[in-house]
Each structure stands twice: as structure tokens, then as C-alpha cells.
Amino acid sequence: MDFSLNEEQIAWQMKARKFADEEIRPISLKRDAIADPAQTIDWELIKKGSKLGFRTAVVSQERGGHGIDYVTQALVMTEMAKADSAASKTFSQCWKWSHLIAAACTDEQRERFLPRFLEDDTFVLGSGQTEANSGSDNRLPPAGDLKAGVRLRAERDGDDWVLNGEKQFIANGNIAKLFFLLVRTDFSVPFTDGTTMLLVPEDTPGFSRGKVYNKSGWRFYQNGEMVFENARVPVANQIGETDGALRRGDGDSSGDMFGDLELAANGLGICDAACEQALTFARAHMSGGQPLADQQLIRLKIGRMNMLTEALRSYVMRVAWEHDQKMHTTNAGLAMNLSTDTLREVTDLNMDIHDYAGGPMDRGADKLARDAFIWCHLAGDSVQRLKVAGRIVR
Predict the structure, then answer these.
(1) Closest CA to 13 of 58, 69, 78
(2) What mean pLDDT, rounded, does the chain reach?
(3) Could you read off the pLDDT of 92-128 as tens digits, one per residue?
(4) Which candidate, 328, 330, 329, 315, places its Cα nearest to that of 390?
(5) Strand 223-234 to strand 238-239: parallel, antiparallel, or no bridges (unpaired)?
(6) Position with higher pLDDT, 271 vs 385
């Protein structure tokens, strides 16, 4: 197998590394320390990254974007996540949904929304799925359970859908200018057969933003509450068939393919940062009159951290390559699960090494561990993700 990168992939990787080193890393700990979760985002950083193409990277060149492939996407996410995982996710969250504007929307919808997304450096995207009583069951719904899944009600009234209900823990929920919203349009069938997707602009009548969640990790990344009180969304904003959002046979599948890869590649960046932190710290500190870097236990820990990180890197890049070859396998979900386990161990070992010198825990090491903990409940928990991957035995 050929693991070499082409010139375009290397160019994007180097551009992301430079942006991460010069723009993201210098502000990372400062933004993380801000008490108000709604103020942690840095719009100047988003604007700078957008002008470099990081916000619109996956929109095809024909439609005004850059059309980077999955391998390039993995490289860029990893480089940015090494400086700050949450900042990387803020950009890649736009990738997850901007492809739908081009791939699944009608020509009229594209004309309304795609130019605005491409031209406005602050135009970030979100999706509304998770609710107070609807989270993991969206990924692996109990068969035949009418109460499982999305409960936000949408009722047809002429040329509008009228929405009532709430969404919670929504990525970019308090800042996105356009949402891809899953709503329940038929409660007489399981939600996989009664859910519709709508495009919901931020200025939709009856839509308001609720609280912003105060998370321990990923503080730069905004998660908020969406409230709908007789909110009116034009039927013209509907994507695909009514009740068909989760059972389209002809829809674009790249969003599903991207999600697990996105999180695994981001996690790889955290692991890279932890390995770098541990090595730098061990070379600069003493314990018991001996440099940490000369102590066998420390060397074993650093060796294990790098071994696990390189194993994850191999899996992430394989999945990215498979996506580019349009190969649909269970590897993306398995790589996501591996990243969860690897992240926790690598960041814990990094904290162990920092603890040997005594004194307060290094803020950078602490932040990596807090960010890594987020993976325990992303896209379902580890057990549920393995259940999904367990379909391989069928």
C-alpha cells in the first residue's frame, strides 16, 4: 500500500499546521478559561480560518468551495485539533452539513443558501437532532418503539410547517445561521419512518435560542438549546420527502460517512498534543534528583502513548482512504471507538507524567484530558457504537 501524500494534501496539511501554530494555539488556554460559555468562541479566529478556506473546504470547486478529499480533511482536522480540539470541531462542523446544501438541496434552495454560506466568514452551520428525551436512540433506535427518537413536532399548515418543542445540546445552537433540523411529522410510526428534515434559518419566526451549556471540555465549541413555539418554516425549506429524512434510498451518504471519521481524526490531534506535551515536560523536569526523561517508568509511559497514537493514526488514515474510494465498511465507527479508548489512556498518561514533578497540574495537560472526556458521549456511548458495528455479523 502507498501511504504517501500528494502535493495538494501536503499543502493543506502545512497550511493547517501554520494556522494552528500561529492563530489557534496562542489563544487556546485563554478561551478555555473564560467563565461564560457563550463568550469562549473567538470570531476573529473563525474569520481568519474562513478566509484560508477552512470553513468552506468540502464544498465542491464547481460550487465555489475547495472540494478537498477525505484524506485531506483528516489531515486538516488533526493539525488543528493538536492546537485546540474544539476550534477544529467548530470548522469541521460546517463540513458535515455544507455538503448537504450542494448534494441534497434543490436548485432553488442552493441558490438561497449556498452563496450566503460561501460569502459570509461568520456563517457557521448546525443541526438539530438531540432532545431531552432523544439522544442515543437516534443512532440506534429500539425497533418498533413509537416513543423513541425525535419528538419535536411539526404539523403542516398550508405552505408552512409549524414547529413546537425543543432541541438540546445542539452544536453551534447559539451561533449558527442555518440549521438542518430533524422534526417528527408522523407519530403513528417509528421515528425512522416519520421524520422530516428542514432547513431552518436563524431568523425563523417562533424560533429562539435558549441557554448555552457550560461544559468541562470543548469550551470553545458552542452547544446550545433551541426553542420552537409555533415556529413557521416554509415547506420550500424541506429537504427530500415528507417522513423520509431517515430512509432516503437515493440521498447522499457522505454525511454519515464523515461523522465518525471527523471525531476520530480530531481525537488523533489531541493524542499528538499529549505526546508532545509529555516529551517536552519529561525533558525539562526532574524527580528524585534525576531527569524524568531518564527514568524507566516515564519512558515506558511515553512509549505507550506514542504506540497508541500511531495505531490510531493508521486506522484514521485508512478510513479516510476508504471513504475516498467510496468503500462503505464498519471501520469508521470502529475507528471512532478506538479513538475514545486511546484518547482517555493517552491523556491520562500525560497527566501522570506531569504529576511526577509535583505541584499544580499543568493547565494544558488538564485541558487535553477534559476535552478527551467528551468522546465518551459523542454519537452515543462506546457500548452503543460497538452495537452498531456489531451489525458486521449479520
Answers:
(1) 78
(2) 92
(3) 999 989 888 877 899 999 999 999 999 999 999 999 9
(4) 330
(5) unpaired
(6) 271
Please enumerate in sequence order all residues whose Cβ is within 8 A of that of 241, keeping only pairs 6 or more positions apart, or say none.
196, 248
- Alpha-carbon distance of 126 to 386, in angstroms, equals 26
Pick from 32, 81, 58: which is nearest to 313 by CA? 81
Please tell me whether residues 56 and 109 are part of one structural domain. yes
Let me know: does 278 contact 350? Beta carbons within 8 Å.
Answer: yes
Distance of alpha carbon 375 from alpha carbon 35, whole angstroms: 22
Spatial separation of the C-alpha atoms in residues 191 and 195, rounded to whole Å: 6
Beta strands 207-212 and 223-234, pairing class: antiparallel
* Residue-wise pLDDT tens digits, 197-219: 999 999 999 999 999 999 999 99
Whole-angstrom Cα distance, residue 376 to residue 131? 18
Separation CA 341–CA 312 (nearest Å): 10
Residue 79 CA to residue 82 CA, distance in Å, equals: 5
pTM above threshold 0.90: yes
Convert the pLDDT of each residue in 215-260 to its tens digit. Answer: 999 999 999 999 999 999 999 999 999 999 887 543 344 455 688 9
| Domain coverage including residue 105 | 7-119
Instruction: Verify that 230 and 308 share a domain, yes or no.
Output: no
CATH code of 139's domain:
2.40.110.10
